[in-house]
Amino acid sequence: MTETLKQITKTTNGLSATIFTTIAALIIGIVGLSCQPETRSVTNPERMINARDLNIEYQVWVAEQQVYQRKFELAADDLEVQAKQLTAVGEAIQELAAGGVPTIPGLLQLLLGAGFAGLLIDNVRKTKATINAVKNNPNG
Question: Does a structural domain hold residue 92?
Fold first, then answer.
């Protein structure tokens, strides 16, 4: 036994086993209570996260799903508007073919509105395609 251990044993009057057990229990208790359970991240499986971070990831996922839901609703609304415009144009053509006189200002407004909307959609689509091409281009 080293001199230090002999001195500790002499000082503690042979209670070294009790002291050692108490210290070991304290260390195990501190380590056990300080550890937080972790799991793999759903969005980044290489990362380990705790319950708080998992809740944050879930809230972000819910918000993203709400954005996608709104996009689908807007797309459905757009299809509905286009269908109404197509029906109105068809009715105006049928009225012309039947020899009737359609309301010229209404027909012009309908055709110009549909054309303007198509022009805007086409420009947005081209702009997005250009941005994606620039992002995906490794040369710059």
Answer: no
The domain total for the chain is 1
Question: Does residue 72 fall inside a structural domain?
Answer: no
Can you name the residues that pair with 40 across neighbouring β-strands? 48
Residue 48 parent element (H or E): strand 48-49
pLDDT tens digits for 60-116? Answer: 999 999 999 999 999 999 999 888 888 887 777 777 667 665 566 666 666 666 666
* Residue 8 domain-assigned (yes or no): yes
On whether the CB atoms of residues 92 and 114 are closer than 8 A, the answer is: no
Adjacent-strand bridge partners of 39? 49
Domain of residue 7, residue span: 3-34
For residue range 104-121, list pLDDT tens digits in order. 666 666 666 666 666 666
